[in-house]
Amino acid sequence: MKTSVQGYPRIGRNREWKRLLESYWSGELSEASFEQEMKKVRINRLKDLQESGLDLIPVGDFSLYDHMLDTAVMFGMVPERYKGPAKNSLETYFAMARGSQSAPACEMTKWFNTNYHYIVPEVESGWVPEIVENKPLTAFKEAEEALGIKGKPVLTGPYTFIKLAKGLEEEELEGFVMVLVSLYAKIIAELHEAGAPLIQMDEPALVLTMTEAEMTIVEKTYARLAELVPDAPLLLQTYFDSVSFPERVFSLPVDGIGLDLVHDNGRNRQALQENRGRKKRLALGVIDGRNIWKSDLEAVRRRFPEMLELAADVILQPSCSLLHVPVSLASETDMEASRKKGLAFAEEKLGELALLQQGPDAPDWNEHQQELAEFYEAHRQADEERSVPHAGRAVPYAERKQLHQEKWQLPLLPTTTIGSFPQSADVRRTRSAYRRGEVSEAAYSSFIREKIEHWIQLQEDIGLDVFVHGEFERNDMVEFFGERLDGFLATQNGWVQSYGSRCVKPPVIFEEIRWEKPMTVEETTYAQSLTDKPLKGMLTGPVTIINWSFIRDDLPKETMAAQTARALQKEIRALEEGGIDMIQVDEPALREGLPLKEEDQAAYLDWAVNAFRLTAEEADAKTQIHTHMCYSSFEDMIDAIDAMDADVISIETSRSHGELIHAFETNTYGKGIGLGVYDIHSPRIPEASDMADMIRRALRVLSPEQFWINPDCGLKTRTEQETVDALKNMKKAAEEVRSGQ
Ligand code: GLN
Ligand code: ZN
Q1: Residues comprising the binding site for Zn(2+)?
Q2: pTM to 2 decimals?
Q3: Taking ligand 2, which is a single-atom ion, which protein residues have CB atoms under 5 Å away?
Q4: What's the ipTM?
Q5: Which of 151, 425, 479, 575 is the most exposed place for a label (fewest CB within 10 A)?
Q6: DSSP assignments along 274-307, one per residue
């Protein structure tokens, strides 16, 4: 039995990777020193892997930004708009990632169902596939020279790479994959010749719901590779769910298959049993690569008693690359020992693999299991409720609507915003100073009040119909609630790469989630006291809080979402008592959490929608519940959105407006809805006439009685001037349409 990992965090123990990138981008660091310092980060990281005793050390999974971008650049897939600097220059690479003066960045999107974002490769008609540089080979040689490591090169496989690219039609998929295969063969041949013991081909796209035709392309791809490089030891690596077409995957002419045995709903395990003995090599993802809990090694052994007999060669691994967990528990110096006992970050997971390999006779085995037992004893006892009843508001929408209309008498097509206003430099500076203890509680809260006053006045000037307080006191919409709800804990250094140099620090759910005291009432009621216009309270919804946290592994997500929902019920009550009766419960991550496999989606939507309904269940009929989602494809979710039973939903649609409006033609959705009328991601000030057109288009399928006018997401990344100008135009557009112009 061997051990390996599919990939390891790039950011370094203290995010030194991030700091180097940012110093280089800002011009503080020359290209030469940047390269030199980065090499140190890379080598230190390899050293950690080597010292852990891992048998197969990944190389080439490190990246200066993103592995999909690396692959695109390696094959000369550089869009025309970046032509100028050499194709393999850092300048081109970062221009694609971040945009340049003359060319906008490549699109970025979520990597499967994770919060990691990759750069979407663009296929352009002028693209001549070539190998600009055999990057995995460079990485392999570097590891060998520096530390004598014969690493396991990691490549994004041809099928996944092209499947996730844009700019090609479905029927072109096969053609492009086959063109790339010959280039892959060359890269693989060189790696094989250099002595790579195993070559990992990442093909996570095999876990999506695939068509017959797509599976045939995968078969042709690997058949062709087997012809071109018959002796190269290829490991076809999948993760994040079970493989579609397991029989056929096991028949592919590769040395080995890598499977996720944690996030597979039990399906991969079954496939393994049914295909016993068919593969020479199996890489088994037996410990959770996406969460941060210590593994119960006894349980792993119990679950896979036949592990040893499955193949001649078994490799023990995490379920996926450790990119998705923080680097090391060693930096959590403030955390209570009793909690720390329950955790394993990337580095500790390497230790777990080593223990699993050695078995229960290993000297540290008992201590590991003992610590886990103590952790459970101390932190996993309190939950009151595990089953979740079906929930919903007592008074139906039609009646609520009347009550709301009587109370507020809002004009047709009411105008509002999504919640946040610009988090300008002074806001961020003052908040960090406050966090460091350099600004007193009183000074901080009066600073926040001033911001609120300023923006209430601006909203009055613009003439919006429904106000917000602006969220100046919040850093991140999940972290903020994680810090205030019982059961969550923030880590000191639990950073995970989200996109480029940006890292997030998801809160950790240790215990039962409970409401302790009001979290948002003070700022919200203060803002409301400054205006006669209705003002929306802002909460983050239960599904989003769960999806963007490290969640417990001993409870179903559904139960944690329900606990969060019950906690938020209390916050809604507290806001109502403070006189706030429009409350927005944001669920931007609801769509993103949709399982990869179609067969799992209905069950997810069922509990996710129910958690939202539970949150609003006890709200007074007179309270108007809003929600907001930001993701560009909702066509398949309108029924679920309807079932959420929010009085008003706002959806980010600037990128798929047409399709969504089309979807409403055949649907009977009748509640309040705001389809964002302009894209907040762009600094461009939208024209009133463009927005008016957009509204008129929507009004062909939606009634003016139900339509709200708002930007498509929060405004925290914009400047004050951009925000005010854009909102003034938005208001003008609303007036134009109202007066029938
Ligand atoms: N209310 C939040 C804001 O305006 C919503 C953010 C989001 O949808 N991601 O910032
Ligand atoms: Zn949004």
Answers
A1: 628, 630, 652, 713
A2: 0.93
A3: 588, 630, 652, 713
A4: 0.99
A5: 425
A6: HTTT--SEEEEEEE-SSS-BPP-HHHHHHH-TTG
